[in-house]
Amino acid sequence: MLSQTTGVVSQPTLTRWLQGTIGAGRGLVDFSVRKPMGAVGGGILLILVLIAIFAPIISPYPPTEVHPKLLFAPPGSELLLGGDFAGRDVMSRLFYGGRISLFVGIVSVGIGISIGSLLGCISAYYGGKFDLIIQRFVDAFIAFPGIILGLALMAALGSSVFNIIIALCVVLAPSAIRTVRSQALAIKESDYVLAARAVGASDMRIIIRHVTPNCMALFIVLATLNLGYAIIVEASLSFLGVGVPPDVPTWGGMLAEGGITDIQNAYWLAVFPGVALALAVFGLNMLGDALRDVLDPRLRGTG
Amino acid sequence: MTGYVVQRVALFIPTLILVSFVVFGIMRFLPGDPALAILSMGGEGSFTEEDLERMRKKLGTDKPYHIQYVLFIKKTATGDFGESFFYPGIKVAEMLKTRFPLSVELAILALTISYVIAVPIGVLSAVKQDSWFDYAARVFSIGGVALPTFWVGILVIFVLAKFFNWLPPLGYAQIYTDPLTNLQQLIFPACALGYFNTAFATRVTRSAMLEVMREDYIRTARSKGLRELLVIARHALKNAFLPVITVAGFQFSRLIGGAVIMEVIFVIPGMGSLLVASVLVRDYPIVQTFVMLIAVVVLVLNLIIDLLYGWINPRIRYG
Predict the structure, then answer these.
(1) Mean pLDDT over residues B283-311, rounded?
(2) Distance (Å) from the alpha carbon of B167 to chain A's nearest alpha carbon
């Protein structure tokens, strides 16, 4: 008996790693069969992330390189997706723009939803006056449409990549607090939390070891769905000229530069950045919906 | 019911006060001195320390925070929103007079269009589940949820400009002086703005209808020989409306956010376009007034939705 157990434990790491990978692969195949649209969404997202990572390698030109002879060059000529008003390559700018959109989105969702989830857990766990105060603040923040709150914050902070991440965190956290709180309220009443309390675990330990991990499924779903929203808000703010500074290429900024005046003659300036945005948001929505159904059926219809 | 109404209204007031704290806080506690920002626009070194002091006095930012806050509340409550920083001498209230109705109209028009389209499509799509109509409706609604509102606006202008030679008008007519022209001008931005809402409401209506159609009372209604149309209209639709109303608050909020960008794209002289312009030049009185007003509108709408919800759904009336 003993030797058997040690045999399992002392398996070479490579085999174990392989088993883990096969297990994950099987899970991935299962997910794709059950939720084909979710898999498509995940695929789109993966491609966009890879493009963003390898942008410096796959871009035909530097994103800010000006080609005076290629002003408004139509797609398919020397520039595959056309040139903008300064003759810059639209495709290269799209690749680099994806970097900013995804980076800003992922970082702000990561921080914003994490803080929101943790506050939601704490608020639900302690309850009482503390919960009441937090929830009234959530009410107040939710009263602002995301873009309006973002605009007001950017007005006060000034435009930079760092500031837009802060603004997005403030926009995203309140609704995460609300959603996670309702889940944590149910967990708080569960038997294992009662058991943990009975053996003398501290509040902090219960929150971190028992309540938070059980909100993980919700966290993943929230993060995926909110990433799409964060990307839209960032693009909207950059489009309005208060997001990322204008010298940095972003999808929203490119749409603004393309301008209402130029699109009659240069449709590619209005179409391609929008397609990139729509693809990212579409992929995230599909993936998020599928993850929600698979990870937590109770959440169906809450998005 | 009375208890529920009292409870909801009682929650409304502290939230309103907190909202004012948030607006005031964003404008005052975050780094950046408005007086310095305004003077800096003239370039470095174009002003002296005395100019800065005078500007602070003029803006009222030299007073302690709590006095500034009381002044802000007093002014907002009495409808005197102060003067614009950037356009000296022009009262914010004066600007609101023509801009507020235009924005409200755009939002209402977009909402009306979206529900008029979404509810029939959602119902039909659920009743004829997995038909070609259902698939078309689902593609339509997936598109609307994924496409960023401002891109839809740009595409609408592009199509109209390219194929119909239509460009956003230079001036928008007011509804009470020239309603026909006004509607003609606002219909395109309203459609573009309403697309997200239409798509979302279609999705919710469809899934709610699908759920309701499986209920026992629908089978009962059918088995007692009621015509299908009556089953849908009288038994199913009424119950399917609950989730539609539940998400309406979230939708209003998002729609108002989208309206700001739509105003910029279609050059509509409403609150949104002025808000964006004011953010760019840091015109605090306008930003603070407009953001506060928008939040109040959203809060009031949510209150109405909650009350409506309690009225429609007897199970919700706690207290």
Answers:
(1) 84
(2) 9
